[in-house]
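Protein entry
_____________
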Amino acid sequence: MERLDKAALNALQPPEFRNENSLAATLKTLLFFTALMITVPIGLYFTTKSYIFEGALGMSNRDSYFYAAIVAVVAVHVVLALFVYVAWNEGSRQWREGKQD
């Protein structure tokens, strides 16, 4: 009887899909995209403002601020979309690996 109770308890516990390696990989992915979220929009803002909008296109200082901000906002959305894509694929991969019956 006691054996059946232990088997029932083991059946009720959800399977463990994560181990130390997957948690470390998830943290590395999060830190990588955090660094991208900080550096890419700021870098693109100043680069496009100075070299493209004011330098190559000859826009005024006021107009270049506006268009460089648009480029930075688009860059934020691209980085966020990439993060969602990578996180979605990483989660489905871990789910498939854990579902080995």
User: Anything to note?
Assistant: The chain is about 85% helix and 0% strand. The CA atoms of residues 1 and 7 lie 10 Å apart. The chain has one domain: 22-98.
